[in-house]
Design goal:
globular; five-stranded antiparallel beta sheet; four-stranded antiparallel beta sheet
Length: 1054
C-alpha cells in the first residue's frame, strides 16, 4: 500500500499562501534558486505577458520587492505561532482513502476512472449521511441520496480523468515492453476487463508518485469533497426546515412532500461550490433551490405588480419566490410553445416591455440563460443584477481621453447595457457566439470520448460538440423563432412601455420606494463568465499541476487586465479574491448592498468601488426621461437589431453638392453624432464581427477599419484639401490613440488587436503615417514609430491570420509605409520578419495560407492571395530578396487559377456549393475592385510581370464597370470601393473616362442621400456607421478621391 512520505503542506501551497504572513523564506542554504527563477519567469509570463516593467510596477503597488518575492519562491517554512492549515489534514485523508485495498472494480461505469475513485466517494457519502440530522430522513430516499453522490462522482472524475490517464499510459507502456520480452503476466494484465491491475499498481506506489508529481491534485480532490459535503448538507437542512412552507408555496395537497430527484447542473458553482438545484417531488411538482439572497426577485415582482395596478399595457410574468435568509426557492418555469405567429408577436412585445423595465431598474447581464419561454411569455428567471451602479469618471481620464470615456459612459447608461440586445463574442475556435437574449446561442465545447473505458486498453479522443441554447426563444411547430421577423413587435413593446413609465413617472418612483430597495444584496459582475471559464480550463489542465505555485499562478492572468499606472488603488484588491475563488474551481462571485459602494465576497468586504449607486442611477434616469430620451434609446434598439431607419428626406430646395462639399457634409454629420471634449472626439458605432456576419453597437476602438484612426484619416484628407477645421478635428480624433500608444499599455493593445493592417497595430501605424504626411504632423510620425515598435517579433510569430486586414501581410505593408517616410532600417528588418513568417506558414498543399478564421485559402485583397501578393511584392521592391518575389508570383498564379472567364471575375472561395453567398462578388474585400487595386499598386515593384498585372487590372475594370452597384455605400463592400479603384486606375492608367465613371458612382450616392437623408449600409443607419471601411468616413474619403489623385490609397496601405 502507498504511504505518504512527503510533507503535503509545502508542496501544495498557492502563491497567495506562499506570500502570506504565515510563511517565511527558508534559510539561504536550503533555498532552491533555480526553482524560484522558473516560478518567477512563469509568473511574469502569465500576469504580465512577459513584460518585466509591468510586473515590477505591480510588485511596487503591492509593496513587495523582487528580491523578497524570489526568496519565498525558492521555498518557505511555516512561521512559529501559525497552525497547520485545515486542508493539509484533509488532503492526507484523501491519499489514505484512495490507497486502500479494493476488492473488485467494475468496468461498467461510464465515467473515466470512477471505479478508482469509488473509495473516496464512499467515504464522503458515509460522512455526509452521518452528518445529516434526523429531520432529513423522512424525505431522503435512496434514489435522491444516490443522485447527490453521483454529483460528487462526476466532479471527481472530471478532475482526475486526464492525470490518471497520463499515469495509465506510462504503466501500459511498461507492460507492453514486458510482454514483448515474454512476460505472460504482463500480457494478461493488458487483456483484463477491469482496472484491477492498474489499481494495484497505484496502491503499491503509483499514488505516492502521483502526489509527488502533481501534489495540487490531491488538495483539489479534498477540496471538491469538502465543497460537496457542505453544499448538500446545507441544502438538506434547509429543505427540512422549509419543507412545509414549500408545500404551501407550491399549493401542494401533501404538506410534507417527498423528493424524487435533484438536478444539480442548473448554474455555475459559486461561493465554495454552491449552485442552483432543480428539485422534483414525487407528485411531479418542481421548484428551484437558489443558495443566494432572493430579495431582488421580490423587489422586481413588487415593481411589476405596481406597474400592472397603474395600467401597464403588457402582461409580464415574474416567477413566484419563497424568500429565506440568504437563500430561497422559486417556481420552476416550464417551457411551452406558442400556438401561432400572433402569440410569437405577443412574446416579442413582452420581451420589449421587459427591456424597458430592466432599463428603468438599471439592470444588466440579462442574457439568454436568464430567460425562459413559457408560451407567449418571456419569463426572466434571475434578478440578481438589478439596481446596478455606474462607474464614476476615473482619475486617469483627461482631456485627451475624455471623449472616449463619454462614449463608454453613454453605452453603459444605454438600453444596451441590460444585456438583452444582440451582442457577440468569439469562441476559442474563432466561431461567433451570440450572448444576447434575442437569438439562439451556439458555442463549441471540447468533449472527451473514451474507447474501452475503465479497462487497461482505454483510449482517449477529443471531439468538438456544439451546444445550442434556445430556451430563451419562443417556439412554433417545434422550432425556435429568433427576433428577426418580429423586430417591430419587440420595438413596439419597448417604446410603449417606456412612454408608459414617462406618463406615470411619479407612480413608478413611488413603487420603487415602496418596494424597499435599500440594502438589498445584489451581484456585481467584474468580468464575463466566459473569461473565468478560460482560467478554470487552465486550472483543470493536469499539465499545469506539477508545481502548485505555478498552477496557482494561472489564475493571476487577471492581473493583465489592470492598469498598474492608474492612481486608483482600490480595485486591485479584487484580484486576490478572484484568484482565491478560481483556486476553489468556482466562478468568482461578488455582491454589493444597494446603499453602499463596498463590494465583497463570501468572506466579507473586499474593497470600495468608485460608482454611482444604482438607486441614484434610477432616480437620475427617471428624472431625465423624456420623449427625446426614449427616441434615443429606441434608435439604439433599431441599430442593435439592424432595423432600417426609414427615409428621412432632406430639406426642400437642397442641391446636389459637389464632391468636396459632399465630403464636408458627411464630416458635419459625423461630428453631430460624436462625443466631444476640449481635446478629443469619439464615436459609437456598429462594430462588424465575424467578417460582417453580425454587428454590435459600442464605442469605436482605435483601428483603421472601424475605429477612430480611420475617421482621423478621412479628416486628414479633408484638411489636405483646404478645410480649416478638419486638421484640428483629426488630431482630436487621434488624441486617445496617441496617448495609448505612448503608454505602457501598448503591449496589451497589441495582444488585443494583433498586428493587422486593417484592425491591428499595423492599421494604427498606417493611419498615423497618413496623418503625418497630410498634416506635416511630427507628433503623429513619432507615435507611428512607437506603435511600429509594438509590432514585436513575438506578436508576428503569434499571428495566425496572415492577411492584410488582420494579419502579418497588413503589418508588413504598414511598416513599409513608415519606412517610406523615415528610412529607418529597423523597419525593413521588422517587415522582413513579417515576410519570413508568411513564407514559413504557407501550406505545403497549395503554397497559400489557411487563416485561423477560415477553412481554406482565399482570393481577394482583404483576406486572400491578392493582399499577400501585395505585401510580398512591396517587400521585394525594398529588399530585392528573390524569395519574396517568387512568393508574390505564386500568389498571383494561385489567384488567377480561380478566375472564371465566363463570369469575368475571380471566384470567392468562401462560397460553398449551393450557398447563398455570391460566387464572384464585386467588392474591395473579395472580387475585382480589390484585386484590381492591389495589382495597380504592384506595377512599380518589379516582382510580377507588368503584362500579367495589366491583364488582371483590365479584367477587374471590366467586372467593376459592369456592376451597377447600389447595394452598400462602404469602401469595403460597396460603391466606395468601386470609386476608389476607378479613381486610382484613372490616374495611374491616364484614362479620364474612368474618372467619369467614378463621378457617376459618387453622384448615385449623393442622389440617395438627397432622397432619403441616408445611404445604404450592410446594416443600421449612418448614425451608427461612422467608420472608414463600412461607414460615413469611407464615403467621405471616396468623395475626396474623385477630385484628388494625390491622396494615398488606404485600401492598399500605400
Amino acid at each position: 500500500m502507498s504511504t505518504l512520505s512527503i510533507d503535503v503542506e509545502f508542496v501544495a501551497l498557492t502563491i497567495d499562501e506562499l506570500l502570506s504572513p504565515a510563511y517565511e523564506a527558508l534559510p539561504e542554504h536550503e533555498r532552491d534558486v533555480q526553482l524560484a527563477q522558473r516560478r518567477l519567469a512563469r509568473w511574469i509570463a502569465v500576469s504580465a505577458d512577459g513584460d518585466e516593467a509591468e510586473f515590477n510596477k505591480r510588485l511596487a503597488r503591492e509593496n513587495r520587492s523582487r528580491e523578497w518575492v524570489l526568496e519565498r519562491l525558492s521555498g518557505v517554512r511555516r512561521r512559529a505561532g501559525f497552525s497547520e492549515p485545515d486542508w493539509v489534514g484533509k488532503t492526507r485523508r484523501v491519499f489514505d482513502v484512495l490507497a486502500r485495498d479494493v476488492a473488485c472494480l467494475s468496468p461498467q461505469d461510464q465515467l473515466a476512472f470512477a471505479p478508482l475513485l469509488e473509495p473516496l466517494v464512499d467515504h464522503a457519502a458515509s460522512a455526509l449521511r452521518a452528518a445529516l440530522p434526523d429531520a432529513v430522513a423522512p424525505f431522503l430516499t435512496p434514489v435522491v441520496f444516490d443522485g447527490a453522490v453521483d454529483h460528487l462522482r462526476r466532479r471527481l472524475s472530471n478532475l482526475c480523468e486526464l492525470p490518471f490517464y497520463e499515469v495509465l499510459l506510462g504503466w501500459r507502456r511498461n507492460l507492453v515492453a514486458a510482454a514483448r520480452t515474454g512476460d505472460e503476466a504482463a500480457g494478461l494484465q493488458l487483456l483484463a476487463g477491469t482496472l484491477e491491475a492498474f489499481a494495484a499498481y497505484l496502491r503499491g506506489g503509483g499514488y505516492a508518485d502521483l502526489l509527488r508529481g502533481k501534489p495540487i491534485l490531491f488538495r483539489l480532490l479534498a477540496m471538491l469533497v469538502d465543497q460537496w459535503h457542505h453544499s448538500y448538507l446545507t441544502f438538506f437542512m434547509r429543505f427540512a426546515a422549509d419543507r412545509h412552507r414549500i408545500a404551501q408555496f407550491l399549493e401542494q395537497p401533501d404538506t410534507k412532500p417527498r423528493l424524487r430527484r435533484i438536478d444539480w447542473g442548473a448554474s455555475d458553482p459559486h461561493n465554495g461550490g454552491h449552485s442552483v438545484f432543480i428539485i422534483e417531488f414525487e407528485d411531479g411538482h418542481r421548484v428551484l433551490y437558489k443558495p443566494k439572497d432572493l430579495r431582488p426577485d421580490r423587489f422586481v415582482a413588487s415593481i411589476v405588480s405596481a406597474l400592472r395596478r397603474i395600467g401597464l399595457p403588457e402582461s409580464l410574468v415574474v416567477p413566484e419566490a419563497l424568500v429565506c435568509d440568504g437563500y430561497g426557492w422559486t417556481r420552476f418555469v416550464e417551457s411551452a410553445p406558442c400556438a401561432d405567429d400572433r402569440e410569437v408577436a405577443f412574446y416579442y412585445r413582452r420581451f420589449g416591455a421587459w427591456l424597458a423595465v430592466f432599463h428603468v431598474l438599471s439592470t444588466s447581464d440579462m442574457h439568454m440563460e436568464n430567460f425562459l419561454a413559457e408560451g407567449g411569455h418571456p419569463v426572466p428567471v434571475d434578478f440578481e443584477m438589478v439596481l446596478q451602479g455606474l462607474r464614476q469618471r476615473p482619475k486617469s481620464v483627461d482631456d485627451y481621453t475624455q471623449a472616449h470615456w463619454l462614449a463608454v459612459r453613454f453605452m453603459e447608461e444605454s438600453v444596451q447595457s441590460v444585456g438583452m440586445l444582440p451582442a457577440y463574442v468569439q469562441g476559442q475556435d474563432g466561431s461567433l457566439i451570440s450572448v444576447g437574449a434575442l437569438e439562439p446561442s451556439v458555442y463549441p465545447v471540447q468533449v472527451l470520448r473514451w474507447d474501452d473505458i475503465n479497462t487497461p486498453r482505454m483510449l482517449l479522443c477529443s471531439v468538438t460538440e456544439h451546444i445550442e441554447i434556445a430556451t430563451n426563444l419562443p417556439t412554433l411547430n417545434g422550432q425556435p423563432i429568433p427576433v428577426a421577423r418580429f423586430r417591430d413587435a419587440f420595438l413596439s413593446g419597448f417604446d410603449e412601455t417606456m412612454h408608459f413609465v414617462l406618463s406615470h413617472r411619479d407612480a413608478v418612483l413611488a413603487a420603487i420606494d415602496a418596494a424597499h430597495p435599500h440594502w438589498l444584496s445584489i451581484r456585481k459582475v467584474i468580468r464575463p463568465t466566459r473569461f473565468y471559464y478560460m482560467l478554470l480550463k487552465r486550472l483543470y489542465d493536469h499539465r499545469n499541476m506539477k508545481d502548485s505555485i505555478a498552477w496557482s499562478l494561472e489564475a493571476d492572468f487577471v492581473a493583465r487586465l489592470f492598469d498598474w499606472d492608474s492612481e486608483n488603488e482600490e480595485p486591485w484588491k479584487l484580484a486576490g479574491s478572484e484568484r482565491r475563488q478560481l483556486h476553489e474551481l468556482c466562478i468568482p462571485h461578488f455582491t454589493m448592498q444597494t446603499a453602499s459602494n463596498i463590494i465583497g465576497d463570501r468572506h466579507g468586504p473586499v474593497t470600495r468601488l468608485h460608482v454611482d449607486l444604482g438607486l441614484k442611477v434610477i432616480g437620475s434616469r427617471l428624472s431625465a426621461l423624456s420623449s427625446t430620451a426614449i427616441d434615443v434609446q429606441a434608435d439604439i434598439v433599431r441599430a442593435c437589431l439592424q432595423m432600417p431607419q426609414g427615409a428621412r428626406p432632406v430639406a426642400e430646395g437642397s442641391e446636389m453638392p459637389y464632391a468636396v462639399s459632399f465630403a464636408e457634409m458627411l464630416r458635419n454629420k459625423l461630428l453631430r453624432h460624436s462625443f466631444r471634449a476640449s481635446r478629443s472626439i469619439a464615436w459609437i458605432g456598429l462594430n462588424r464581427v465575424d467578417h460582417e456576419v453580425a454587428a454590435q453597437l459600442g464605442p469605436l476602438g482605435h483601428d483603421l477599419y472601424h475605429g477612430s484612426a480611420g475617421i482621423a484619416l478621412f479628416l486628414a484628407a479633408l484638411a489636405q484639401g483646404g478645410d480649416p477645421c478638419a486638421a484640428e478635428q483629426c488630431r482630436q480624433a487621434l488624441a486617445a490613440t496617441i496617448k495609448l500608444v505612448n503608454s505602457s499599455r501598448l503591449s496589451a493593445l497589441g495582444r488585443a488587436l494583433g498586428v493587422g493592417g486593417g484592425v491591428g497595430l499595423g492599421s494604427i501605424v498606417y493611419a498615423l503615417v497618413f496623418v503625418s504626411e497630410m498634416l506635416s504632423d511630427a507628433e503623429a510620425l513619432e507615435a507611428a514609430d512607437v506603435c511600429a515598435r509594438g509590432i514585436s517579433a513575438e506578436l508576428i510569430r503569434a499571428d495566425d491570420k496572415f492577411d492584410l486586414v488582420a494579419g502579418t501581410a497588413g503589418a508588413c505593408l504598414a511598416l513599409l509605409a513608415l519606412y517610406k517616410r523615415t528610412r529607418a532600417e529597423w523597419l525593413v528588418e521588422r517587415a522582413v520578419l513579417c515576410g519570413d513568417h508568411l513564407l514559413d506558414r504557407r501550406s505545403a498543399t497549395h503554397g497559400m495560407w489557411i487563416s485561423s478564421a477560415f477553412a481554406g485559402p482565399l482570393t481577394g485583397v482583404a483576406h486572400g492571395a491578392a493582399g499577400m501578393a501585395l505585401a510580398l511584392s512591396r517587400l521585394y521592391a525594398v529588399t530585392g530578396e528573390a524569395r519574396f518575389r517568387e512568393a508574390a508570383q505564386d500568389c498571383v498564379e494561385f489567384e488567377n487559377s480561380h478566375f472564371e472567364v465566363a463570369l469575368g471575375n475571380w471566384t470567392d472561395l468562401r462560397a460553398a456549393p449551393g450557398s447563398d453567398m455570391a460566387r464572384t462578388p464585386n467588392q474591395w474585400c473579395y472580387g475585382a475592385p480589390g484585386i484590381g487595386l492591389a495589382r495597380l499598386a504592384m506595377l512599380a515593384d518589379g516582382a510580377v510581370s507588368k503584362c500579367l498585372l495589366n491583364q488582371d487590372v483590365e479584367r477587374a475594370l471590366a467586372a467593376t464597370l459592369r456592376d451597377p452597384g447600389g447595394r452598400s455605400a462602404g469602401l469595403c463592400c460597396g460603391d466606395g470601393g468601386h470609386i476608389e479603384f476607378l479613381s486610382v486606375a484613372a490616374a495611374k492608367l491616364d484614362r479620364p473616362s474612368l474618372r467619369v465613371s467614378a463621378r457617376e458612382r459618387l453622384a448615385g450616392l449623393q442622389a440617395t442621400w438627397d432622397r432619403t437623408g441616408d445611404l445604404n449600409w450592410i446594416g443600421g443607419t449612418s448614425d451608427y456607421n461612422p467608420g472608414l471601411f463600412q461607414g460615413l468616413a469611407g464615403v467621405g474619403f471616396s468623395a475626396l478621391r474623385v477630385d484628388c489623385v494625390r491622396l494615398p490609397s488606404p485600401l492598399v496601405l500605400e
